[in-house]
Amino acid sequence: MNSAVTINLTPEEQAVLEQHVRSRKTPMRLIERSRIILLAADGLTNIEIAEQLYISAHKVGRWRNRYAKFGFSGIERELPRGGNHGGKKTADQERLRSKILQMTTQSKPQGATHWSTRTLAKELGTTHSFVNRVWQDSGLKPHLAQGFKVSNDPKFEEKLVDVVGLYLSPPENAAVFCVDEKSSIQSLDRTQPGLPMKKGRAGTMTHDYKRHGTSTLFAALDVFSGEVIGECKSQHRHQEFLSFLKTIEKQTPKELELHLIVDNYSTHKHENVRKWLTRNKRVTLHFIPTSSSWLNLVERFFGLLTQRQLRRGVFTSVKELEEAIGQFIDRHNQTPEPFVWTKTVDQIMEKVVRAKIALQNI
């Protein structure tokens, strides 16, 4: 019996294959093939790899040989079907694959915003399963779209340096808070009781609901301890914001300077707020650039609140809603964990410049 071909990986190849295995975005078939090659490089036989991955030894040998001959391209592409491993069929498949990628990324179907596997297959005279394989191998997901917005703030870099500096190199004898409002939180009561979760079935809740009013949460996240100061108010005018500033000032040691990171909402810049800041020198507001809510870490806390307490919550009154929010903050503060900022100004600016160039080239 012929011995299995030996696989020797460079450190770069090893890193790429390991990244394939770890990434959630990698297609399952490529994860399996990457594991085969990594195990083969460790000196395991085809039978040993097959037993470990619960697949056939023939399959292991096929992808081992493909990688030895073609490298990454050998495991990233599908084998030709029907037993024809070369010639016209392979060339036709490659042309079709290129056409699928071109049309998916550079065109739209008539009367729709994006292609589906079936509409594109019908257009090209192929099968939807082949289109799906090409999309999976290329990491394309036309049905998904990610939201974004590049800030046009003329002082973007100046404000970025200021805020990131507070995260990565804070001043001595100071406390840094990320402050914002989560406005118009609805007190929603479902029209019918939901069914509890059980084995084989998710919990249920009705799609319709009854509204019982709204509340606004003012929150200040201590960047270094992770603790949150929070107050619910019926409105979010400058009066409420100023009242919350006074709450923060009262609940922090008098010997510390207070640096508060806020967005550009008009209430934060109201004349009465500015006058109060003039009288209270220990408090300084730092404004993030416009359209840059991702730069304010308190948004992470709001995300947790929505996910764990609000989205599935049932509240028959505003009071009940506000009590639930207060309980969530209290539990959070019992074992707080800070959100650690890691990106430098240079890393962020590099990404922003790439985004602006890409937008200019559309």
Layout of SSEs?
Elements: H1 11-22, H2 28-41, H3 46-53, H4 57-70, H5 72-76, H6 88-106, H7 117-124, H8 128-138, H9 156-168, E1 174-190, E2 209-222, E3 228-233, H10 238-250, E4 257-262, H11 271-279, E5 283-287, H12 298-310, H13 318-334, H14 345-360
Parallel strand pairs: 1-4, 4-5
Antiparallel strand pairs: 1-2, 2-3
Helix pairs in contact: 1-2, 2-3, 2-4, 3-4, 7-8
Measured as a percent range, the helix fraction is 40-55%
Instruction: Provide the gyration radius in Å.
Output: 28 Å
- Please name the CATH architecture of the largest domain: 2-Layer Sandwich
CATH superfamily of the largest domain: Ribonuclease H-like superfamily/Ribonuclease H
The fraction of residues in strands falls at: 5-15%
Q: For this structure, what is the CATH class of the largest domain?
A: Alpha Beta
Calculate the mean pLDDT score and round it.
89
Poorly predicted sequence stretches spanning 5 or more consecutive residues: 81-87
Would you tell me which CATH topology of the largest domain applies? Answer: Nucleotidyltransferase, domain 5
How many separate domains?
3
Distance between the termini: 57 Å
Structural class: alpha/beta
Q: Encode the helix/strand succession as letters.
A: HHHHHHHHHEEEHEHEHHH
Count of beta strands: 5
| Oligomer status | single chain
Instruction: Give the biggest sheet.
Output: 5 strands, mixed
